[in-house]
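job 3f2a | input accepted
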Amino acid sequence: MDLLRWTLIFLVIALIAAVFGFGGIAAGAAEIGKILFFVFLVLFLISLFYGRSRNRRL
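job 3f2a | predicted structure (58 res):
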């Protein structure tokens, strides 16, 4: 009986994931993820160069 309960739980999770995946929400989330990746990459590079130049002055 316990195995049947877990099977039904995973079935519901899979159906919810399918609704979100087929509805276009996944594509929107992937696009936002790409934008955030490049924003944080630029911020990382700026902080890397700023920290390096700041250490030279000390």
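job 3f2a | The mean pLDDT is 83.
job 3f2a | closed
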